[in-house]
Amino acid sequence: MGALNYKHLRYFWAVARVGNLTRAAAQMNVSQSALSVQIRKLEDQLGQKLFDRQGRALHLTEAGAIALGHAKAIFATGDELLAALSGATDAQPTLRVGAMASGIFRSVCCAPSWPMPTRGSCCGRARLRPFWKI
């Protein structure tokens, strides 16, 4: 069995929800024959008949009811994914703060342009200052 086609599953869900191929095709903006072909392809891929015809109405088989439950779960997960990712672009920028080894202080504080040594100096030339206060 190959990968499941999301579009076929969406068509199946629409027909199962409405119960009529013509109305589902109108809602999905496809022709009735195209929708019927897509449903047939899904049935062939799953190896199960998903609908029983009773006049013009379509009723789910047992396999169709199982497939519908899974389709709803798949679409709910897809909606959650879209919601999570759409919220990421609208979020406030993230400020990330990191720490560096103390070697940066030593190399900065030992620069020759620093003032005369004071109490607590490093290298005998200047006070130890973080790089952001230079």
Oligomer: single chain
Number of domains: 2
The total of helices stands at 5
**Largest sheet, described in full?**
2 strands, antiparallel
**Remind me, CATH topology of the largest domain?**
Arc Repressor Mutant, subunit A
Number of separate strands: 4
Strand order of the largest sheet: 1-2
SSE topology string: HHHEEHHEE
Shape: elongated
Alpha-beta content class: mainly alpha
Describe it for me?
With 134 residues, the protein is mostly helical. 54% of the residues lie in helices and 9% in strands. The chain is built from five helices and four strands. A two-stranded antiparallel sheet has the order 1-2. A two-stranded antiparallel sheet has the order 3-4. A hairpin with a 2-residue loop joins strand 1 and strand 2. Helix 1 crosses helix 3. The longest helix has 29 residues. The mean pLDDT is 78.
